[in-house]
């Protein structure tokens, strides 16, 4: 939440309240997913990161990259082979559709600046 307050304060100072509020809403609504996703995969809920940066992350040596990534891929594939994955995919697709609907209803913000940036001639 301290990050959200800083972003809102900067947004107000720069007169960019809507993007600042959008960031805070997205950030805070993502937190429950970060807590519950490990539980969906068969572990317990992960909560150690929630008070960061007020509390340091647990210290442990980082895992070797390739075995760690392969383990995550194996865990991910195992989840999608289970019946639970259908409900998860439907929930994710519903959230994506809802976000697309809201974006469209809001006038598709950001689309104009993206189109303008892609139509600019490149400088060498």
Structure in words:
1% of the residues are buried. The protein is mostly helical and 124 residues long. The protein is built from five helices and no strands. The chain has two domains: 1-54, no CATH class; 63-108. The longest helix has 24 residues, at 17-40.
List the helices and strands and how they pair.
Blueprint: H1 2-13, H2 17-40, H3 65-80, H4 84-105, H5 111-119
Helix pairs in contact: 1-2
Task: Output the keywords.
124 residues; mainly alpha; 67% helix; 5 helices
Mean pLDDT: 81
Strand content: under 5%
Q: Return the string of H and E elements.
A: HHHHH
Distance between the termini: 43 Å
Count of folded domains: 2
Identify low-pLDDT runs. Answer: none
Count of separate DSSP helical elements: 5
Total count of strands: 0
Structural class call reads: mainly alpha
Helix content: 55-70%
Shape type: extended
Provide a short characterization of the protein structure:
The protein has 124 residues and is mainly alpha-helical. Helix content is 67%, strand content 0%.
């Amino acid at each position: 939440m301290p990050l959200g307050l800083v972003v809102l304060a900067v947004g107000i100072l720069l007169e960019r309240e809507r993007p600042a509020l959008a960031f805070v809403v997205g950030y805070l609504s993502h937190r429950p997913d970060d807590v519950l996703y490990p539980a969906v995969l068969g572990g317990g809920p992960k909560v150690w990161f929630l008070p960061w940066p007020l509390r340091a992350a647990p210290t442990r040596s980082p895992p070797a990259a390739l075995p760690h990534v392969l383990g995550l891929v194996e865990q991910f594939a195992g989840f999608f082979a289970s019946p639970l994955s259908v409900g998860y995919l439907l929930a994710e697709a519903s959230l994506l559709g809802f976000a697309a609907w809201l974006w469209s209803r809001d006038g598709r913000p950001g689309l104009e600046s993206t189109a303008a940036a892609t139509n600019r001639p490149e400088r060498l």
